[in-house]
Design brief:
Structural class: mainly alpha
Order of helices and strands: HHHHHEHHHHHHHEHEHHEHHHHHHH
Signal peptide: 1-24
Protein name: SusD/RagB family nutrient-binding outer membrane lipoprotein
InterPro entries: SusD-like, TPR-like_helical_dom_sf
Number of strands: 4
CATH class: Mainly Alpha
Number of helices: 22
Keywords: Lipoprotein, Signal
Mean pLDDT: 90
């Protein structure tokens, strides 16, 4: 077993032991960041990789800010989860209903994802994902290049999500303070290119280790129990996800990166055993708190429309029947008038385990289906990949015996949506936002209809990760979602175009005004929710 050399101990002592333990929650009090609350000795840190390994738990727990639970509620649930059509709020919630659900973006909400990535940067540089990742990089050196590779994968995973919310981010220039005290952002294109470089570096290190039985990550890995081969599969799959994301705006780069992911001998996520999910036990899954503890979240109307129309057996795995109409699943349309919590009797989310999903095998099969549709080498056959995606999702929920009948269905479509409390929110038959895509693969269909079929099934399978579903909706326009009825954006977000992004953190305007002003020029439009991201090509 390798041991940590004393120079790393000295480096950590100089920097403060807080880099190892500071990230217990994105918004906690860090008054004692220069003390060691665990009381570990130098001898303890010299063995078992604890010095370099302990921060990884914190990074994994901050992908979703799951403790305290309300952090993720603002970080994702009241953003991507509702904008993706997965979920809806049953009452006015904050600001009398004049909030994210009606496109009036609340600064105190939109800042949280930024804080979980950076902390109060640059004033408190050891409090969140990017500062901790940087400390790991400084400690790793050549001796611990496998730990550095693991860190790069996690950093890309986190910062891809941040970029897909805001656009330009501080990534390659992190820690570089200009003479005017500002910090520069990367354009989203530059950030994505840096993501690919970091993933390639990590994959290069892990590929020859894929058959190794060593598990130096094991004590710190909340996802794959320290398996090199599992992390390599995940890195390849993440690379493919990012490649598909830029396929419309930068098809050459997308093809190069996607084909590299497809060709790597380590492979991709393929089965239920490969699913990437952070084990947060004994902390309860925050979604259980939001739906049953807070009673703040319910099923989304598009989920009701599509899953009911498809007679989808995954419905009870995702949601509970409503109390409003016993035995029937009822969803809430996002962006409606909510005088009170009148939709609390609509469908709750079904109970979820203490695992936070990062990526499923089903998603990767659908990524391969689109890659095949685009003619990428190594992607295989689009139809076979599409069917494998459905089967992988059914297997994830122990429904494999029902996959054949589902895949053979060429008639079922989304059904009209009926709001039992306010008919003004209904979406009737033939409405432009009501999906008419069927389930069975049709080889004779045009490219766009095949793409809609792939993305609709991916949308179902990626649940409950609303941010990823929202990103794919923005990129493709699929599945068809219902527009808001009440738009309180003051004209900044056109109703017909849906919300495209979140404005930069207000804390950046206070602490890094020159940097964020330059970031707006990189954005290519005003800093509001109506401006498209780089990869969000019309």
């Amino acid at each position: 077993m390798r041991t940590l050399k004393s120079k790393y101990i000295r480096n950590l002592a100089i920097a403060g032991i807080s880099a190892v333990v500071a990230l217990a929650g994105c918004t906690k009090d860090f008054e004692r960041i220069n003390t060691n609350p665990y009381g570990v000795s130098e001898d303890d840190l010299k063995t078992d990789f604890r010095l370099i390994g302990e921060p990884f738990k914190q990074i994994q727990n901050s992908i979703y800010g799951n403790s305290p639970g309300w952090v993720m509620q603002i970080q994702q649930n009241l953003e991507g989860d509702i904008w993706s059509g997965y979920m809806g709020v049953p009452g006015p919630f904050g600001n009398g209903g004049n909030n994210n659900s009606t496109y009036n973006l609340i600064d105190g909400w939109t800042v949280v994802m930024w804080g979980c990535a950076y902390g109060n940067y640059p004033d408190a540089p050891n409090l969140s994902v990017m500062p901790v990742a940087r400390r790991i990089e400084q400690l790793a050196g050549e001796e611990f290049k496998d730990f550095k590779a693991w860190m790069l994968i996690l950093k890309v995973l986190v910062m891809q999500r941040v970029s897909d919310v805001y656009g330009p981010i501080i990534y390659t220039k992190y820690g570089v303070i200009n003479p005017d005290k500002s910090i520069d952002y990367d354009s989203q294109k530059d950030a994505y290119y840096a993501f690919f470089k970091d993933l390639n570096d990590a994959i290069t290190v892990l590929t020859p280790l894929r058959t190794s039985t060593l598990k130096p990550f094991e004590k710190f890995d909340l996802t794959y129990d320290g398996s090199y081969s599992a992390w390599l599969k995940f890195a390849n799959s993440l690379r493919l996800r990012l490649a598909i994301r830029i396929a419309k705006i930068d098809p050459g780069k997308a093809k190069t990166e996607g084909e590299a992911a497809l060709a790597n001998p380590g492979g991709l996520l393929e089965t239920t055993a490969d699913i990437a999910a952070v084990n947060i036990a004994p902390t309860p899954n925050p979604y259980n708190t939001y739906t049953s503890g807070y009673n703040d979240i319910r099923m989304g109307a598009p989920m009701e429309s599509i899953l009911t129309g498809y007679k989808d057996p995954r419905m009870p795995k995702y949601f509970e029947p409503s109390a409003a109409v016993p035995g029937v699943y009822k969803g809430i349309r996002t962006g409606i008038a909510l005088p009170d919590k009148i939709y609390a009797d609509y469908s709750k989310l079904a109970p979820m385990p203490s695992k936070m999903q990062l990526m499923t095998a089903a998603e990767v099969w659908f990524l391969k289906a689109e890659a095949a549709l685009r003619g990428w080498t190594g992607a295989g056959d689009a139809a076979e990949n599409y069917e494998q995606g459905v089967r992988a999702s059914f297997a994830q929920y122990e429904l494999s015996s029902r996959a054949d009948a589902y895949l053979a269905d060429n008639t079922s479509r989304a059904v009209p949506y009926v709001d039992t409390k306010n008919a003004a929110n209904n979406v009737g038959a033939g409405h432009a936002t009501l999906s008419n895509i069927t389930i069975r693969w049709e080889e004779g269909d045009a490219f766009e209809r095949k793409l809609e079929r792939i993305i609709t099934q991916k949308w179902i399978a990626v649940f409950p990760d609303g941010q990823e579903a929202w990103s794919e909706f923005r990129r493709t326009g699929y599945p068809k979602l219902f527009k808001v009825v009440v738009n309180n954006s003051g004209g900044k977000i056109p109703t017909d175009l849906y919300i495209r992004r979140v404005n930069f953190a207000f804390t950046e305007y206070a602490s890094n005004p020159l940097g964020v002003q330059r970031a707006v020029t990189l954005l290519g439009g005003p800093d509001n929710g109506g401006t498209r991201l780089w990869w969000d090509k019309p």
